[in-house]
Structures are given as C-alpha cells and as structure tokens.
Amino acid sequence: MVNSIWKMAVVGGLMGASLVAQAQTIRFAHVDPDSWQNSKKGAAAAMFKAAVESRSDDLKVELYPAGALGGEDETVQQAMDGMTQVVMISGAMSKVCPAAGVLDIPFMFNTASQAWQVLDGDFGNALAQHCLDQTGLRTLGYGETGFRNFTNNDHPIHSPADMEGLKFRVQDIPLYVELVKSLGGEPAPIPWSETPTALSTGVVDGQENPVSTIYNNNLHELQKYMTLDRHVYATDFLLINEQFFQSLSPEDQAIVEEAGKLAGNMGRSIQEFTAANGLLAVQKAGMEVYTPTPEELEQFRDKAQPPVVKLLRNDLGDEGNWIDKLQQAVDSTTQKDAS
C-alpha cells in the first residue's frame, strides 16, 4: 500500500513538473515605470499579466518595465524578431508602420473619447491589420499616452504668434519638427534623457508633452507656463508577435486578445486619472496654465495641420489614403455626437 502511494506521488509529481514545463512564458516589455497607480503602460502591463494568468494555466507573463530591455526602438525590433513576445510602444510605431503616423496629425481629435471611438472601430481594426501585414505584430489593444501640450519658461502662449522666437525641445520625428516650425517656434530635437538639463540651462525655452509626463518628471519645476492646446493625441500600441500568437491554442488566443483589450482600457483610464491629478498639482505648485479659446485653437489648427498633412502625404506616398480614412472616421464620430 505504501509502495502504491509512493508511486502515485512520484507520478503525480512528474505530471505536475510536465505541466509546468509546458507553460509558455510571455515577455512583456515597455519603457514606463512599473506602477499601476501612475504609469499608463505600467497599469496596462499589470492588467495584462493578471488577466492572462488568472484565466490560463498554460501562460505566464514576465514584465520588463522602465526600459529594462531597451528603448521603444529596441523593444519593438525584439518583438518583430520574436525575442520578446509583447511590447507596448507609442512613438516608435510609426517607424515600423508609417501609416500609424497619421494618428499624430495635430488637432485631429477633440476629446479622448472621440479618439477611442475611432481606434476601437473600423478604422482602428483596419490600421491594426495593415500594421500586422507590415511588421508581423498583432495589435491587441490601443492605450493612451495623452494629449500633448506646450510649456515654456518665457511668457504665456495664447496663440501661434506667442510662439515666435521660442525654442522648443521636440522628439526627433519629422512630424513634430514640422509642427513647431509651422506654429512659428524653433524646434530642437533633443533626446528625452537630456530634456531636463536643456530646460534648466536655457538651451531651449520650452517643450511639449502630456500633462502627466510633465508632472511625473517634475518639468513644472523648470517651466512657468503651460498652454492646454492639446495639439496631438498620442496613442499606445499593445503588440504581440504574430508567430508566437499563432502558436497558442485557440483558447489561449482568446484569453490573450481579451487581456489586450482590458489592458488598453486600463492604460487609458490611468492616463486620464494621472493627467487630471497632474493638472491640479502643477497649478497648486505655481505653474500658470492657460486654456485657449475656440477661436485661438482654430488659429493653431489652421497653421499646424496643413503643413503636417502635406509632409505625411509625401512620406506615405501610395499609403497617403490613410489620412483620408482617419478624417472620415473622425467626421463620422462628430456626426454621431451631433445626432
């Protein structure tokens, strides 16, 4: 009897070990802090891990936050190569799938909810399929980096005329360089890691980023003025290597897809929460915040949108119709809201 029990224990242990060995690991990399309370990508990653591991016995998720596996350019390439299974990126997406750059057209979206309708609808689905075909990366969900706003340390900005003579740090992306130039400012492409020093030493007068980024990185301590012009709605892309995705069982594919949607929405919620809290905090700290009137916003839009669209059409070539598809999708949400 003892012998039989011992044999059963051994067999059971071997079966358990076999099940563990069969579990597949999903490596999830992003560049934000590992905090679900104030980090949009951190929150999305935590949700993805919890949703996957609570519903599948075959999948485990390892998180690599805060650039542990490199910056966005490095991690998206790792995902394309299959070294990392899941990544969450923003600006780097347009480098591997140029059509995604249309989402950075200035003053395209009026509200975050409008952007969500577009991304979660037919346009977002079509863009996801296009980028899958180009990169081998499946879009599991869309998160949010937030609306970008100008800050500076010289004087309040109420209209494009107030930007003349000011130098702004921008990402080293042609669209952002053109955006600042079109508004009368002087763009200065500077790496993010060097931005605080550039601001504190006066190398640049200002910069542009979402409110949450400004507050979480203490840029409000280096800048006196913020203009809530909301010139670009920045999107996060939650991506999985397609070859890895296809290797999963149909049941696990469904779990991963649902987890991706939940993660994207979690990132959006935390982004909106931190933006609202950040706006209150920077004003309490003494930063002067100005919200342009509809007429002033129209001035920004009229100056910035046409040259950026022209630049994108030239860059996209035959894929320039993505600009029109996006505009049609935005117009459709506007008509629904009006009805």
TrEMBL record:
UniProt keyword list: Signal, Transport
Record has tRNA processing as a keyword:
no
- Pfam families xref list: DctP
Signal sequence extent: 1-23
Give the transmembrane region(s).
Answer: none
**Record flagged with keyword Transport:** yes
Q: Which domain of life is it from?
A: Bacteria
Q: Name one GO biological process term.
A: transmembrane transport
GO cellular component terms, alphabetically, are: outer membrane-bounded periplasmic space
Under NCBIfam families, the record lists:
dctP, TRAP_S1
- Family, as annotated: Belongs to the bacterial solute-binding protein 7 family.
> What is the protein name for this chain?
2,3-diketo-L-gulonate-binding periplasmic protein YiaO
